[in-house]
Request: fold
Amino acid sequence: MAGPVVRQFGGARRRLIEELQQKGISDIAVLKAFDDVPRHLFVPTGVRHRAYEDAPLPIGHGQTISQPWVHAKYLELLALKPTDRVLEIGTGSGFQSALLTRLAGQVFSIERIPDLAREAHAALGACGITTVVQRVGDGTLGWPEFAPYDAILVGAASPDVPQPLVDQLAPGGQLLIPVGGREEQVLLRLRRTPTGVERTRLDAMRFVPLIGQHGFEA
Ligand code: SAM
Reply:
């Protein structure tokens, strides 16, 4: 990625990467992805000066770009391979979609709010990323046409694990999803094993709700 706008905020970006390391992120590929992707292009201009704070920021329509540490944690947990096929639910700003292109082979992303999907597409284009396959729709149904996936990342809170997402996991595939109430959730990791699906409870999280057929009501 080149160009003067893309290269702005280099010092702030490096400080964010140091902060992520201090907070326990050690996967070099993940940290390199944060160095590659200009987060300031994925936030509204009014909060651009705050783009490299380790904080969620408003992106309009009552939604947020997630905290960088949360994105980093998801990516570190998944330990993606360059051949992996990944499905992201909740494109939002498109920032995590961009990070995913640095770590995985194919990236599919679903967003329910058309304006956000359009803006994410524009931001990805502004940093020269044209490989994310995007769709507007209800991500709780997954995207069966391109299944199975080596990893599915849900960037919004669900009352339970949507079964279509579990069904669309490849052998050995992993699903990361925050499950709980609208206010607080626990991050769950589900992994398809030869004998079934293994479920692990991870960190406490706070996400905006996943709205859809297998999520919360609007
Ligand atoms: N990783 C994104 C980012 O940092 O920009 C996360 C954005 S936000 C925390 C979660 C997104 O999930 C919102 O944009 C919201 O509109 C979207 N969302 C909620 N329910 C959805 C659903 N059923 N299908 C697809 N997207 C959904």
Residues 91 and 97 are 7 Å apart (CA to CA). The first helix runs from residue 4 to 7. The helical segments are 4-7, 10-22, 28-36, 68-78, 95-101, 114-126, 163-167.
